[in-house]
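[worker-b] picked up task from shared queue
[worker-b] task type: protein-ligand structure
[worker-b] ligand name resolved to ketopantoate; SMILES cross-checked against name lookup, match
[worker-b] sequence length check passed
[worker-b] input payload:
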Amino acid sequence: MHIAVIGAGALGAYYGGRFQEAGAKVTFLVREKRAAQIKEKGLQLKSKLGDYEIKNPAITTRAEDIVDPDVVLLSVKGYHLPGTMKSLQTLANNGAYILPVLNGLEHIGMLQEAVGKDKVLGGLCFIIATLNENGHVVHSSKFHRLLYGALEPTQTNICQRLDELTKHANMESLHCDDIMLELWKKYMFITAFSGITTAVNLPIGPIRENKETFRVAEIILDEMKQLANQSGSEVTKKDVEDAKNGLLALDAEATSSMHQDRRKGLTLEVDHLQGGALRLAKARGVEIPYTDAVHGMIKPFENA
Ligand SMILES: NC(=O)C1=CN([C@@H]2O[C@H](COP(=O)(O)OP(=O)(O)OC[C@H]3O[C@@H](n4cnc5c(N)ncnc54)[C@H](OP(=O)(O)O)[C@@H]3O)[C@@H](O)[C@H]2O)C=CC1
Ligand SMILES: CC(C)(CO)C(=O)C(=O)O
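[worker-b] inference finished, payload out:
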């Protein structure tokens, strides 16, 4: 299987590396600066679950150069999505399916519009990873789960081919029958987790110690459940409870990637995540006032 990775950042380089380690052909489609860094420093994964060095990584800056791609692992930040559309169209026209692993949900419709519904799979990840000063991946969580699944019946075959690959790969992978439900559950979780940690500029521990603060996250979970239900996804009360228990089970110093980005003064996915939820809520006539308030609080930190 030939996997093209767009966005050789934390997730792209990590999962791209794991696919290559499992025997896939992997090509990284990168921009000039990242291409130069990879040429100079190479591409390594540093992980308690197994280090890996991608020897002679195949990189290109032109989608046209990627021959016979089967799947595109799309792992850019939400605000970089528009800049990838032309490349995605080229790769989809050359036969590839797009497997986006961004947080959020709005990108699914955007991608389907750009390359056609049949070409867009559903995907998401549970992992904590970042790039260090050499552009190598530092994977710091004990988990590295990749969920994927068909959004259209025509995608069964490509998902089965992914099953074959992922079963040999050093990652936890799950082929989901209802990937849209999983996308909504993650969207619910991340909207609350990234919202509260970024708004109060604290990891989860001190947030939990102040029940008034933790309550804000709990209410956002409820609001996102309602939004999911009104959007046709059967997120249940138990899913909300599981998400809350997930927040309670995290190490005290654990925090969201958005909060880590706030600490580093990087651009944040506020518009893609909380902003996207507000746009959907407006379209569906759902009230999500706590999400709205937290969106307002984190907005000043959105742009680097
Ligand atoms: N990191 C994590 O632990 C987790 C992240 N996520 C989600 O995954 C998504 C990706 O996050 P993450 O991997 O951390 O992000 P990173 O910022 O580490 O990586 C994104 C990469 O995309 C590249 N990029 C942007 N535009 C283009 C383009 N047009 N062509 C080629 N490359 C491009 C950037 O390259 P350049 O160097 O050129 O800017 C950058 O290296 C986000 O939606 C995030 O919320 C989900 C779970 C966990
Ligand atoms: C919650 C977590 C770490 C899970 O992957 C995440 O997606 C993020 O912080 O962006």
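[worker-b] attaching auto-annotations
[worker-b] The chain has two domains: 2-177, 181-301.
[worker-b] releasing lock
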